[in-house]
Design goal:
Elements: H1 3-13, E1 18-20, E2 24-27, E3 30-33, E4 36-39, E5 44-47, H2 51-58, H3 80-88, E6 92-95, E7 108-116, E8 124-131, E9 137-145, H4 149-166, H5 169-180, E10 189-191, H6 204-221, H7 229-249, H8 255-266, E11 268-277, E12 280-286, E13 290-296, E14 302-306, H9 316-325, E15 335-336, E16 339-340, E17 350-351, H10 359-366, E18 396-401, E19 406-412, H11 414-417, H12 422-436, H13 451-463, H14 473-483, H15 492-499, H16 503-509, E20 513-520, H17 522-530
Helix pairs in contact: 4-6, 4-7, 4-8, 5-6, 7-8, 12-14
Domain PPM-type phosphatase: 108-520
Family: Belongs to the PP2C family.
Keywords: Hydrolase, Metal-binding, Protein phosphatase
Length: 532
C-alpha cells in the first residue's frame, strides 16, 4: 500500500463515524478481521468533533517521529533506524541455562517476546517465569479491554496463583508458618520481566494477602497429593477472578487502593498461559488470545498445531454453551451484532464485573465510589440483562506431550492473529529460524572474500524473501503483521505509516500486539524418549 493510498484511507475513515442527534458521535474500537469489522471494546458517547479537528489531530506531534502535514500532503517521515527503535523498544529475550551455563535438562531452549502498543496506555500485558519450588516454566499473554488495569493486575498475579496451586502441602505449611512468624517467605517464581513491565506497588500488600488466603484455602482442603496441573490452572484462573470481584466490593485502606480495585474489576482481560515441564505442555486459555505449535516434519516441511480455541461470539461451541447456561427466552438477546449482549466479542474474561454482577450489586458498589467517570468506569447495564453472570474466567486447558518435531510455541494477543494466520506465523518463525542458522559470511582477515560465495548467499536470501532485520523473532512477526503488502513483503512506507498513526486513529487499524515465542530443546526432548 502506498503512502498516498494509506493517507487517503485514513482521511476517509474520519468521515465514517456514526453521527447521532445532539452533535454526538458514537466511537467504537474496531479491528479488521476476515474482511469484516468487529467491535471489541465498550463504545462511549463523546462530543463529536468537527472533521477539521480530526484532521488536525492526525498530524499533531502526539508521539516521537510524528510529523505535521495537511490533507493534500500526508507525510510519514520515519527513517529505517527510527522504525527499528519503535519496533524493538519492547523486546525481551532469555536463554535458559543451568548453574554450569549449559542447557542440558530444560526442554525450553530460549524465549523471545515483544510488544507494540496501539492503545495509550497499552492494554496488553505479558508474563514469563521459572518455577522455583516446583518444576517448569510459565508464559502468559493478557489482552485487556475497557482499560489496561485488569490485564496489568492479572499479568502480575495469575502465575503466582498457578504456582501456589502446584505446591505440596508441606511447602504451603512452611510458607504459612513464615508469615505467622514474620519471616521472609521463600520465593516461588523467578520472573523474567522487561523494564517497562511495571505493576501496582501501592496494592502489593493487598495482592499478597489475597494470595495467602488462597493458599490457606488449599491447606483447608486437606488433600494429598495436591491438584494436578489442569486442576491447578482452572482453580487459579477462577480464584483470581473471584478475588478481583471481592476486592472491588471490600473496604480498602486508602482511596487509591479502592480506585485501583474498581478499575481492575470494571475493565477486563482475556488470558492465555502455558506451563512447560519437560515434555509436558499445558495451555490454559480464557478468551481470544491464542497459542500454536510450529511442527517440523521429517521431510523438512512445517505444519501448525493449534492449542487453543478462540472463546468469542463467533465460536459455535461458546454460543451453545452460553445458551445452555441461560433461559431459553434469552436465546435471541444473548448475542446481538456478533457480541455478547451486544457489547463484548470475547465470551470468557477476567474482570468485566458489569457482565457478572447483579444490577443491584453494581449500583451499590458504584454509588459509594465517588466520581466513576474520573476512574474511566462506564456505568452501563445492557438491555435484556436478566440472569448474570454472562461471562466466566474459567479456562479451557489443553495438554500436549512434546515431540522432537515440535520446535516452537507462539502465544499472542489477538492483535497478531487479526493480521496474520496461524500458518503465516509458523512460516515466518520457521523462515527466521532458518535464516539465523545460515552460514555466516567469512571475514576478510580469515581469507579473501569469494564474490561467488557472497552472491550465492544473497540469492538464497532472495529466494526466501526479504532478509530478516531482527534478531528477536517476535519483532520479526510484528514487523510483518503491520507492514506486509499484498505480496507478503514488508513495505517500508506502509510500516512507517502504521507506526505514525495518531493515538485516536491507531486503534481503528491495528490493536495492541504482544507476542512470545518459546523455542524447544529438541535434544532434551529426544533424550526423554530415548531414556524411557
Amino acid at each position: 500500500m502506498s503512502v498516498r493510498t494509506l493517507s487517503s484511507w485514513i482521511l476517509r475513515s474520519t468521515r465514517n463515524n456514526i453521527v447521532l442527534g445532539g452533535n454526538k458521535c458514537l466511537y467504537s474500537a474496531y479491528t479488521p478481521n476476515r474482511n469484516k469489522t468487529k467491535c471489541k471494546f465498550f463504545s462511549r458517547m463523546l462530543p463529536c468533533p468537527p472533521v477539521s479537528y480530526i484532521l488536525d489531530s492526525i498530524f499533531s506531534l502526539r508521539k516521537a517521529f510524528r510529523h505535521t502535514s495537511t490533507e493534500e500532503h500526508f507525510s510519514f517521515q520515519l527513517s529505517p533506524l527510527q522504525i527499528n527503535e519503535i519496533l524493538r523498544a519492547g523486546e525481551l529475550s532469555h536463554k535458559i541455562l543451568d548453574v554450569n551455563g549449559k542447557n542440558a535438562n530444560s526442554s525450553v531452549l530460549r524465549f523471545e517476546s515483544n510488544q507494540l502498543a496501539s492503545n495509550t496506555p497499552v492494554e496488553d500485558h505479558r508474563s514469563a517465569a521459572t518455577c522455583l519450588q516446583t518444576q517448569g516454566m510459565m508464559f502468559g499473554i493478557f489482552d485487556g479491554h475497557a482499560g489496561s488495569a485488569c490485564a496489568q493486575a492479572v499479568s502480575e498475579r495469575l502465575l503466582h496463583y498457578i504456582a501456589v496451586s502446584l505446591l505440596s502441602r508441606q511447602t504451603l505449611e512452611e510458607m504459612e508458618l513464615a508469615v505467622e512468624s514474620m519471616k521472609p517467605v521463600q520465593p516461588i517464581l523467578q520472573l523474567h520481566k522487561h523494564p517497562n513491565d511495571v505493576g501496582y506497588p501501592e496494592i502489593t500488600s493487598q495482592y499478597f494477602e489475597s494470595l495467602r488466603v488462597y493458599w490457606q484455602h488449599l491447606l483447608d482442603l486437606d488433600t494429598e497429593p495436591g491438584l494436578n496441573l489442569e486442576e491447578a490452572m482452572v482453580s487459579a484462573f477462577k480464584r483470581l477472578d473471584s478475588d478481583i470481584s471481592l476486592e472491588a466490593q471490600a473496604p480498602q485502606e486508602s482511596e487509591l487502593m479502592r480506585n485501583i480495585a474498581l478499575q481492575v474489576a470494571f475493565s477486563g482481560a482475556t488470558a492465555c498461559v502455558a506451563h512447560i515441564d519437560g515434555v509436558h505442555l499445558h495451555v490454559a486459555s480464557a478468551g481470544d488470545c491464542r497459542a500454536i505449535l510450529g511442527v517440523q516434519e521429517e521431510d523438512g516441511t512445517w505444519s501448525t498445531l493449534p492449542l487453543t480455541r478462540d472463546h468469542n461470539a463467533f465460536d459455535e461451541f461458546e454460543i451453545r454453551r452460553l445458551r445452555g447456561e441461560h433461559p431459553e427466552y434469552e436465546d435471541k438477546t444473548l448475542f446481538v451484532n456478533d457480541r455478547l449482549l451486544g457489547i463484548l466479542v470475547p465470551t470468557r474474561a477476567f474482570g468485566d464485573v458489569q457482565l457478572k454482577w447483579s444490577k443491584e450489586l453494581q449500583h451499590s458498589v458504584l454509588e459509594n465510589c465517588g466520581d466513576v467517570e474520573a476512574l474511566n468506569i462506564l456505568q452501563y447495564v445492557p438491555p435484556n440483562y436478566h440472569t448474570p453472570p454472562y461471562l466466566t474466567a474459567e479456562p479451557e486447558v489443553t495438554y500436549h506431550k512434546l515431540r522432537s518435531k515440535d520446535k516452537f510455541l507462539v502465544i499472542a494477543s489477538d492483535g497478531l492473529w487479526d493480521l496474520l494466520s496461524n500458518e503465516k506465523v509458523v512460516q515466518l518463525v520457521a523462515g527466521h529460524l532458518t535464516e539465523l542458522n545460515m552460514p555466516k559470511p567469512r571475514l576478510a582477515f580469515e581469507e579473501p572474500v569469494n564474490l561467488g560465495y557472497m552472491h550465492s548467499l544473497l540469492l538464497q536470501r532472495k529466494n526466501r524473501g526479504i532478509a530478516s532485520l531482527d534478531q528477536n523473532v517476535a519483532t520479526h512477526l510484528i514487523r510483518h503483521a503491520i507492514g506486509s503488502n499484498e505480496y507478503g513483503e514488508v513495505d517500508q512506507e506502509k510500516l512507517a505509516a502504521m507506526l505514525t498513526l495518531p493515538e485516536d486513529l491507531s486503534r481503528t487499524y491495528r490493536d495492541d500486539i504482544t507476542v512470545t515465542v518459546v523455542y524447544f530443546n529438541s535434544d532434551t526432548i529426544e533424550n526423554y524418549y530415548r531414556n524411557k
